[in-house]
Design brief:
Elements lengths: L16 H5 L2 H10 L2 E4 L4 E4 L2 H8 L5 E2 L26 H12 L2 H5 L2 H12 L7 E3 H6 L1 H11 L3 H14 L11 H23 L5 H7 L1 E3 L5 E3 L2 H32 L1 H9 L4 H11 L5 E6 L3 E3 L2 E3 L4 E5 H4 L34 H18 L4 E2 L5 E4 L4 E5 L1 E3 L1
Parallel strand pairs: 2-10
Antiparallel strand pairs: 1-2, 3-7, 4-14, 5-6, 7-10, 8-9, 11-14, 12-13
Helix pairs in contact: 6-8, 6-16, 8-9, 8-12, 9-10, 9-12, 10-11, 10-12, 11-12, 12-16, 14-16
The structure holds protoporphyrin IX containing FE.
């Protein structure tokens, strides 16, 4: 069966801010009418069904990450930043196993008390207030402080680096994330981390950068070596950028979705054991990272549509989470929904290495919020959305208490 790849009335554009406000109705149409969607203007294809996104994620040989995974930076040129998110096996495998060793469950689990402490520092001053900005004052602060602690950024530098990481996600019309402000911000964080890596080489501490500096990696040719300062910096940069924005978006989305579903929120207050599942449902329902790109290394066929070699393919994990072929009544938010598996953290070799940390921060962030504020009001009309072609969420979500 051949499906029409682009019916004229169906147009999805990842840079269109109006579409981005609520892409779900359009993604539903794409799943039904054009599961292999073609956009000529930006020269990409998009897969929107759960099983197609899953299949592409499981095939890194055909669906390569090495041309980057962000639409505006993807092209025939292979990425040379050496960040593992933009690498394919076997090079990716070696680096991934190294970071997995530095990013241990012990290191992550050991952060629980620290995360609760940060939540208390941020939320206690708001008790008795009439309201606050849940993203600016809490959701954007928490992951940044947690990652800073993990990576080894001292408290006095954390706010400046948080602002720089935020700047890396700045987007401009037509050029998207490839703009001067985003590049300048990225450079600032990189230079800062480079200095920190050099310090850690002299004086290792109990943090992730020190672990990276000390770790040995075996290259595909069998040579064992330490990572260079530049490689450690890139890791720091990747963890810092991937771990800050996404969790901030998760919690910001939670503030809105829970205000819109007070019965579900009341269930979480009355039964805190539901919170971990509520985090999974929030991840499925409003994914912070709903679009992940790949470059095809060979022609590939889905539903009778051929995608040529050397194409940009966007995997819509955000649409996959709403796929009625997998989830019953997918547009209903239900903190008790049984979720076997979602794709919000990706799937396969690039599965989010920070998933355990993100889940921990999401759970504790919500537990500590609900303990202090069992009810709040929030309105999409007063929230400010951040528009990028990858991360989706809010800059600001004012809540009333
Ligand atoms: C709710 C929060 C988060 C979401 C939704 C999320 C989502 C994702 C997704 C979808 C991928 C796969 C990308 C791809 O296949 O191209 C990914 C990979 C990654 N994430 Fe996360 N992430 C989150 C939190 C974090 C945190 C807290 C960290 C670090 C501390 C982190 C670090 C990474 C890294 C390093 C990769 C690359 C892994 C690889 O290439 O092997 N993420 N994440």
């Amino acid at each position: 069966m051949t499906i029409d790849t682009a019916p004229t009335s169906l147009y999805w554009d990842p840079f269109d801010t109006e579409i981005d406000d609520d892409p779900y109705p359009l993604w539903r149409r794409m799943r039904d009418e054009a599961p292999v969607y073609r956009n000529d203007r930006y020269d990409f294809w998009a897969l929107s069904r759960f099983h197609d996104v899953e299949a592409a994620s499981k095939d890194p040989k055909t669906f390569s990450s090495s041309h980057t995974t962000v639409l505006e930076t993807m092209g025939p040129k292979v990425d040379d930043t050496h960040m593992m998110i933009f690498m394919d096996p076997p090079e990716h495998t070696a680096l991934r196993s190294l970071v997995s060793r530095a990013f241990t469950p012990r290191r992550v689990g050991g952060l629980e008390e620290r995360i609760r402490g940060i939540c208390a520092d941020l939320l206690d001053p708001q008790v008795g207030s009439g309201g606050f900005d849940y993203v600016v004052d809490f959701a954007a602060q928490l992951p940044s402080r947690v990652i800073s602690t993990l990576v080894g950024v001292p408290p006095e530098d954390q706010e400046e680096q948080r602002r720089n990481v935020d700047g890396m996600f700045h987007i401009e019309p037509d050029v998207g994330m490839r703009n001067e402000q985003a590049m300048e911000s990225g450079l600032k964080v990189a230079l800062y981390l480079f200095g920190l890596v050099q310090q850690r080489r002299q004086e290792p501490r109990d943090d992730l950068l020190s672990a990276l500096v000390q770790a040995e990696v075996t290259d595909p040719d069998g040579t064992t070596r330490h990572l260079t300062d530049e490689e450690c910096t890139r890791f720091g940069l990747l963890l810092y950028s991937a771990g800050t924005e996404t969790v901030a978006k998760l919690l910001g989305n939670a503030a809105l979705v829970l205000a819109e579903n007070p019965d579900q929120r009341a269930d979480m207050v009355a039964h805190p054991e539901v919170v971990p599942n509520a985090v999974e449902e929030l991840l499925r329902f409003e994914p912070p990272s709903p679009v992940n790109g790949r470059w095809t290394t060979a022609e590939v066929e889905f539903h009778g549509v051929r995608i040529p070699e050397g194409s940009k393919v966007l995997m819509l994990t955000g649409s996959a989470g709403r796929d009625e072929r997998v989830f019953d009544d997918p547009d209903r938010f239900d903190v008790r929904r049984k979720i076997n598996h979602h794709l919000t953290f990706g799937y396969g070799v690039h599965f989010c290495i920070g998933a355990a940390l993100a889940r921990l921060e999401g759970r504790i962030g919500l537990e500590e919020t609900l303990k202090r504020f069992p009810e709040w009001g929030a309105d999409r009309a007063t929230a400010t959305r951040v528009h990028t072609s990858t991360v989706r969420g809010h800059h600001s979500v004012p809540i009333t208490l």
